[in-house]
Amino acid sequence: MTDVSRWVQENPLRYRFLQDFQKLGASVLYNAAVGIVLKRRRLVYAAGTVSDPALFSDTFAALVCEPSVRDALLVDGTFRECFNCYQAVYTNGPIPQERTDIQLRQLTLDDMPFVLQNYHHPGANPEHISARICEYMIGAFVDGNCAGFAGVHEEGAIGLLEVVPEYRRRGIAEALESQVINWCLQNDRLPYCHVLTDNTASLALQQKLGFTLDPKPLYWLS
């Protein structure tokens, strides 16, 4: 049994992302009956109730599954911010792309200025966006103009989804995320994402696309 398989077998919907994180090269920092902690570069994923601050040192952000761990790491000052999220997991087959009015193409570094200008996230910076484009980001183009983009985060979750305001409510977010789902499936990756618990529009999109939502929140700490 691998380090993460016990957790995946216990609750595949909640913990299968650990398996994909390990496949991307995450190493196991801690593994015991009470929990498991994996780290890749400066990102940490933790399941169970382990909250030793030493395991989260030199970390940019961490995803934890239990509110007790969240509270302990915030109280002791290891992290300052918390974002409550629902995890959505896609377990169906590829999604046909039937839109003929949208051109979907993989972005290149030439598109980075546009992404930086339009991606409204506090963690966006040239180094981060460059790495995401080099792995995989897709753009949606309408009449030659970029209307939005999406991709995969460093830890493997689907995200980076942004639609330019004048192109919203035209199904572009659905087309973009469908394409990223298909890329994940083609590359033996689990299509999953983390959605803020109060982002009703994104939660509705995940359900429309066929994702299954874990009813218990997860917690991103930074």
From TrEMBL:
It holds the Pfam family Acetyltransf_1. Residues 102-222 form the N-acetyltransferase domain. Gene3D superfamilies: 3.40.630.30. Coiled coil: none annotated. GO terms for molecular function: acyltransferase activity, transferring groups other than amino-acyl groups. InterPro entries: Acyl_CoA_acyltransferase, GNAT_dom. This is N-acetyltransferase domain-containing protein.
